[in-house]
Amino acid sequence: MTTATPTAATGTPLSTGAALLTLMKLRTFIALFAVILFFSIFAPNFLSTANMILMSKHATQNAFLAIGMTFVIITGGIDLSVGSIVGLCGMIAGGLIMYGVALPLGYTVYFNVIEVAIIVAIVGIAIGAINGLLITRLNVAPFIATLGTLYVARGMALLYSDGQTLPNLTGREDLGNQGFAYLGSGSIFGLPVSVWILIVVALGAAYFARFVPLGRHIFAVGGNERASRMSGIRVNRVKMFVYMFSGFCAAIVGLIISSELMASHPATGTNLELNAIAAAVLGGTSMSGGRGTIGGTIIGAFVIGILSDGLVMMGVSSFWQMVIKGLVIIVAVVVDQAQRRLQQRVTLMQMAKAG
C-alpha cells in the first residue's frame, strides 16, 4: 500500500512548500545580498569606506521613516505625510536657530540645540496627532487624511520662508545655539551619530512591539480590528499612538537632514514616504495589516538606500530610479500576498498530515 505525500491544491509537496515559504521569509536578506553584490561589481568605489558611511547615513534616514511607517501599516493604515513633515520640521529647526522666537516688546528668545530638537519633535508628534484625530474621530480614511496633511505640511514649509532656503545654520556662540552640525555630521567610534540614534530607536521600537501591551495591541488591531475592540483594546488609542510615533520619526529625519546640510529647504523630504513604504513592505510588513517586524524593516531600508545610492553611482537617471522603486514596491506586495497564500497551504498540508 502506497502512502501519498500531502500536497497543496496545485500539487506542491509539503517539503517544497515549506522550502519556498522559508525563501519568501528570507527575501529581505536575499535582496540585501543581491544589491550589495551587484553594485560591488558594477559601481566604481562602491565598497570604499567613504561611500559606505554615506550610504549608512542615507539608509538611516529611510529607516527612521520606515520604523514609524511599519507600525502604521501593521494597524492597516498608511501615512503619506511623513515626507512633508520632514520638510516642515527641518524648516522649523532652521528658523529657530537663525531667528529664534520673537516675543512682544521686541524680545527674541533663542534655543540651544537640544531645546530645538525637543520643539521639532513635539511638532512632528502634533502633526501625527492631527492625522490620528482625523482617522479616529472623523472617520477619514488614512489615505485621504494623510494625503491632505501632506499638502498642508508642505505648504506650511514653503510659507515659512516664502520658498527660500535657510542657509548656514551654524548658530552663534553668544546665543548658545551652536553645535547643530554634530547631529548630522558627527561620529562616535567611527559611526555617524545618526546611526547610533537609529540603533537606540530601533531597539526601543522592537522591545516595545514585543513586550509592551500597547505594542502587542498594534498587531491585534491590524489582525482584526473588530475582535480587538470587542476584547477591550482601545483601538482609537492605538491608532493615535502609531501616527504620533510616525510623526516623531519624521521629525528626527528633518533634524538630521538639516543638520547634515547645515541648511533647511522646504522641499526636503519630497517622495521619502515612498522609500518608507517600500522599506517596510520589502522588510515583510503586510499591507493588509497584522504582520511586520522592526528588524525586517531596517534591512528593507538599507536595501532601498543602497539601491538608490548604487543607481546614482552608476549614473542611472533619477526618472528610472523612480520607476525601479515603484517596481520594488509592486514586487514586494506581490511576494507578500504569495507568502500569505503559501502559508495557508502549508498549514493545511501540515494539518492533513497530522490527521
From TrEMBL:
Membrane-traversing stretches: 29-47, 59-78, 85-103, 109-133, 140-160, 180-209, 240-257, 318-335
UniProt-listed InterPro entries: ABC_transp_permease
UniProt main location, coarse: membrane
Cell compartment(s), UniProt: Cell membrane
Region forming the signal peptide: none
Record-level Gene Ontology MF annotations: transmembrane transporter activity
Topology relative to the membrane: Multi-pass membrane protein
A single GO cellular-component term on record: plasma membrane
UniProt keyword annotations, A-Z: Cell inner membrane, Cell membrane, Membrane, Transmembrane, Transmembrane helix, Transport
Protein name per the record: ABC transporter permease
